[in-house]
Amino acid sequence: MTKTTMVPLGVMLLVLTATASTAPAQAAAGAAGLPDVEVATAPVEVDGRVLFSVRGVSAFPAEQRAETIANRIRRLAKKPSFRPEALQLVDHDGILGIMGGELRVMVVHDSDARLEGVAVRALAEAYLARTRQAIEDYRYERSSKVLLRTAASTLGATVALATGLLLVSWVRRRLDALLEARVHSRVRSVGISSFEIVRGEHVWSLLNGVLGTARVVAVVVLLYLYLSFVLGAFPWTRWIASRLGDWVVRPLRVMGHATLAQIPNLIFLAVLLVVVRYLLRLLKLFFGAVAEGNVPLKSFDRDWAIPTYKIARLAVIVFALVVAYPYIPGSGSAAFKGVSLFIGVVFSLGSSSAIANTIAGYALIYRRAFKVGDRVRIGEAFGDVTEVRNMVTHLKTTKNEEVVIPNSEILRQEVVNYSTFAGSRGLFLHTTVGIGYETPWRQVEAMLLLAAGRTEGLLEQPPPFVLQKALGDFCVTYEINAACNRPQEMNALYTRLHRSILDVFNEYGVQIMTPAYEGDTDKPKIVPRDQWFAAPAVAPAPDRGEPGKE
C-alpha cells in the first residue's frame, strides 16, 4: 500500500468519529420518519472489492445505480492523466455530489445518510475517500511490477498445489499398503451364530470407501485454496474468488440445513431399510429351503418356491415404499409429484405388454404347464424348454435353434407336454401305415407289434398295441402305439421304429404301398379264411370260439 493510501483512511476515521455523537439522534429521527421495511441495497464493487452500498428507487434500482457508479470509477481509473486528488465534493443547491473533473461519479442523497445513520456530508466524505483509494488500488495492481510479483506467487502456488496432490496420492498408497498388510487379513464377517449379518468384504469395502472419500476431500480443499489464491491475486478475476466460497459453501449450507431438518425422517427410513433388508433375507432363506426340499409344504410344488419368493419380495418392497414415501425428503414438493406422475404415465403406457407377459409367466408356472427340460410343442414350435423367464420362454429345437415365445402368446395357444407322464406312465409314440385289403389284418398287426418289440428304446410295459384308424377306399390304416420314457429321443425312436417296420414287412413279403384304382379289379381284394393267420400272426386255440371252428 502506498503512502497516499493512508490519508483517505485517516480522513474516513476522523469523519466517522466526528459524526458518532450525532448519529444516534439522526438515526432515531430517521427511524421515526421511515417505515419499518427492509430497504433494497446493492454493493458498489471494483475489482472484487466492495467500496460501499447504495440504495435505489423504482426508477433507478439499487443494482443499476451501483453498477453505474462502479463503471464511472473504473473509467476515471483508466485515465492516466486523472489524479485521485482531483475528486471533489460539490454542493449544488444542498445536494452533495462526487465529481471527477467533468464526470459526476455519484450523488449522495439524504436517504443514503438516513440508511447509514450518519450525516450527509460525513457519508459523502467517506464515499469520496473510498473512491480515491479504489482508483489508486486499481492502478497500483495493474502496474508491471505488481503483475510480475503476482505471476511469480501464482507460479509458486501452482507448484505447491502439484506437491500437495502428489503428497495426497503418496499418503493414499501408503495407507492402502498398510491396511492390506496389517488389517485386511484381520477383517472378519459380523454375524450371530451361523447367520451372517455383515460380510468381511463389505467391511473392507467400507474402509476403502472412507479412505477414498478422505482423498477426494483433501483434493477438493487443495483445489479450493489454490483457486481462491490465484483468482484473488489478479484484479480481473478477484470477483470470482470473492464469490467462490459462496458458490461452494452455499449449496453445502443449504443441504446441511435440509439434512438437519430431515434427521428424524432419515432415521425412520434407515430403520425401515434395515428391517426390510433382513425380512427379505429371511424370505430368501425360507423359500430357498423350500426349493431344496428341506422345508416340505403340503400341496406346494418345489418349483413354485422361487417364483413365490419373487412375488413376496416385490410385495414387501412395494409396501415399504408406500410406508416410506411420506418420509422421503422432498416428497411433498411439486417437482417430486410431477416426476412421480411422469414416471407413472410412462410406465403405464410402455409396460402394458411387459406386465401381461409377466403375469402370464407366473400363470404358466403355477399351472404346471411345463418346466425347464421338458419336451413340448407350443403352436408350431417344438423342442426342449431351456429357460422360463418372467416375460418369455426359451425353447431349443431339435435343430439347435432357439425359439423365444412371449408368455402371453403361450396362454393363447395349445401346449403339448411330452415329458409330463413319460417317466411314470410312458409316452406313446405312434405312427401309421396303409395296407391293402388283400393283406390279413391279423398279420399286419402282428408285424407292427413285432417291429415295435425289435425297436431299441421302446418299453415293454406298458405293452405296445395297434389301432385300426380307418377303412379307406383303397386301404386299411393301422396305427402302432409304443411307449418310451425318453421324450428327448422322440425323433431317433421314430426313425428306429420306421426302420423296424420296413424290415419286418420286407421279411414277410408285405408291401407298404397304398394301392389306388381307376376301375374295378377282376379279382376281389379279400383275404381267404386259410390266410387269416399268415405269419407272424398266431392262430388262437380251438376252444377260443374262433369263427369256423367246432
Largest sheet: 5 strands, antiparallel
Whole-number average pLDDT?
80
Rg over CA atoms? 49 Å
Structural class given helices, strands, pairing? alpha+beta
The unreliable regions are: 1-36, 189-197, 544-550
Distance between the termini: 147 Å
Instruction: Summarize the amount of helix as a percent range.
Output: 40-55%
Number of domains: 5
How large is the share of residues in beta strands? Answer: 15-25%
Per DSSP, the total helix count is: 15
Q: How would you write the strand order of the largest sheet?
A: 11-10-9-8-12
Shape call: rod-shaped
Q: How many beta-strand runs?
A: 15
Order of H and E elements? HHEEHEEEHHHEEHHHHHHEEEEHEEHEEH
Topology summary:
Layout: H1 6-18, H2 23-33, E1 41-46, E2 49-55, H3 62-77, E3 87-92, E4 95-100, E5 103-108, H4 110-116, H5 120-140, H6 144-182, E6 190-192, E7 195-198, H7 200-233, H8 238-261, H9 263-292, H10 305-324, H11 334-350, H12 352-367, E8 375-378, E9 381-388, E10 392-397, E11 402-406, H13 407-411, E12 415-417, E13 427-435, H14 441-454, E14 465-471, E15 476-484, H15 490-507
Antiparallel strand pairs: 1-2, 3-4, 4-5, 6-7, 8-9, 8-12, 9-10, 10-11, 13-15, 14-15
Helix pairs in contact: 1-5, 3-5, 6-7, 7-8, 9-10, 14-15
